[in-house]
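Late entry, written up from scratch paper. The run itself happened at the end of the previous shift, but nothing got recorded in the book at the time, so transcribing now.
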Amino acid sequence: MNCTEVTERLPWLANRTLSDEERAEAESHLATCASCRAEFQDIVDFLEHGFAHPSPEAIVQFVYGSLGDSDRIAFQRHIDECAACREEVEMTRQSKAAMPAPPRHNLRWLALAAAVLLAVAGPITYLYRQALQREAILLARASNLEQQLGRLRQPTASARVVDLLPEAFRQRSEIIPPITTIPSASPETLFLLNSQIPMSERGCEVLLEREATTLWQSAAGERGSNGEFLVRIPAGFLKPGDHSLHVVCGHSRETYRVNVN
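Output as recorded:
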């Protein structure tokens, strides 16, 4: 068995309802897998905590009035303090009300059936809670990703996005102007640098220069699927005049030119 197969069987392993063959395979896997052992211990702790309360048989006997006086008093004291057991008592009472009163000799079989149902409910409840937790984590990650994509696709009114091509590419073109001109009236600028540097190059940096003076420098972030960089220049660094953006990746270097008027 692999981890997924073992994890699916852990509640029933803890509840001792696996076949001998499945139990042997699961125990063999647990002997070598610390992660699955930890999850199995969580299930055992969960079930032990639940079974520290009155047994399912006792709940059925209490509802049907077949507990002895001393046991009934102790049971009543427990459910006065335990909300979970009160809920189980109420559910059993509702089930009793929904069916004809059984003959007295069938009470034992009814108690046994209820005990089996409640015993199986423990593992199912655990798996349901695990599924809810995983769903919540996935939803949170999806929401965070949507927010990040939304900020890139829809810049705020105080920011602008400028699409730039490398200077070497512009020089070979007869159509594209050699330099991009942008207005200065914007506190923040996002540059989309369409880099031609191979994707295999790592450790890239971006430098902003004006008149051979470095104004701003930062490590480049993750590249897009086509090798592009998204560079955010904070407010105050772009002044009127010509600027150069340099991308340096190891021995590779690219220059982008922009004029602020």
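The longest strand covers residues 241-249.
(Scratch paper discarded after transcription.)
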